[in-house]
Amino acid sequence: MKKDTITLQVNGTDYTVQVGPYELLSNVLRDDLDLTGTKRGCDFGGCGACTVLLDGKAVYSCMMPARHAEGHKIITVEGLADDGKLTPVQEAFVRNSAFQCGYCTPGIIMASTALLNQKSNPTEEDIREGLAGNLCRCTGYVSIFKAIMEAAHA
Amino acid sequence: MLEFNPSDHFEPSTPTETATLLLQHGKTARIIAGGTAVYELVKRGMASDIRQLISLRKLPLNYVRADDEGIHIGATTTIAQLISSHDMMSGPALRVVLEALHEIRPVQVRNVATIGGELCTSLPLLDLPPALLAVDAIAIIFGPQGQRGCPTSEFLVDLFLNALKRGEFLLEVLIPKQPERCGSTFIKFGRTAYDFNLVNVATRLAFSNDGACSDARIILGGVGRVPIRAKSAEEELLGHVLDESRILHASDSLGEFKAIPQIHGSIEYKRQIARVLIRDSVRLVLERMEGLTK
After folding, report:
1. Which residues of chain B have pLDDT under 70?
2. With a cut of 0.85, is the ipTM above it?
3. pTM score of the predicted model
4. Are residues A92 and A34 in contact, defined by beta-carbon separation less than 8 angstroms?
5. How many CB pairs under 8 A join A and B?
6. Do A22 and B53 touch (CB under 8 A)?
7. Shortest alpha-carbon distance between residue B97 and chain A (Å)
8. Using a CB cutoff of 8 Å and minimum separation of 24, what contacts does B258-263 make?
9. CB contact under 8 A, A130 and B107
């Protein structure tokens, strides 16, 4: 397969990777860059476990061709904490036990971060809308909503 | 992941270069913008014929601008960008478009899916195409013969089939100036807010000074292979001041249109829902018009 060299800026670092004509961002992040915090869940653009930030906005990395992310700032869950210090969203998730098995958590934290980037004081309706693309089969969402509300007011 | 190994990925930087590539590769070439439509095809095993991906990301087609003709929306403008441009679509006639945009979920898809993909995929389960038909939007197409306009009502030909000829691609969507005294709405009916629709309706009505309905567009999505114009219902409304009996008359007039069944909705069920949605949408437009004149 013909491959091209592209440069992706992930968590503030430039990475040069070889990609085929249709290489998905989630595969590049996990398999080439070893950033396995981004999960593959449904792998069908529906569960949200693969959510990352592209220029601060939530996208499904399992749906996005890696080439389309070139020239944009990509943030994965590994890129949130600053020198080991968790973000207010991450801290609120810990305080509220807003996870159980944890598989959906990186995606939900990324979607929550994107939501709070856009709406610093979200309503419950805003949270429902912002998290409509993320599934959690453990928590029933109550603790997640509580954590986001708490993070917004931190 | 299902096997999908295209041989090439091109990123042309001009419309002419794009048309040349499409002409050169013909049916094995596929335009890609946000990537959500191609992804769906790949996951459903329907992309095996695609050998060349032609990305529009380097073309300057990401814009929303208004002029004397109406509102021009570049083909690679995302759903999220359109929602952010709501000020340009603030009039009651274009509320149908804004409401359809808000039905496209989740945010992860809104941030990458484009108006071009919504239209060119020619899939009846999408929300934006019926709304574009309801406002008489025009597809501006670029190809080897230059630029041409095609009404969106003629652009969608059949399931997965649009009016683009070999070498052509969508440049922009033009929403023309809307009639005076016009109201509109979009109603989606699906299994969940997150799912594709089962049935949706995009309704735009204009009224003359005496209050009679002077122009009507009632477009049903999800029921046929392409959005269907409910002409019998429109005709029942035209020339009349709309009271409850007239509205019921219109929704009941919906004939035996050709519908496609889905696992969550039989043909008869969809027909029944379509009648209800027509009725509710006309009532809602009337309520909004009364609100405006008070």
Report:
1. 1-2, 291-294
2. yes
3. 0.95
4. no
5. 83
6. yes
7. 19
8. B258/B224, B258/B225, B259/B223, B259/B224, B260/B124, B260/B223, B260/B224, B260/B225, B262/B198
9. yes
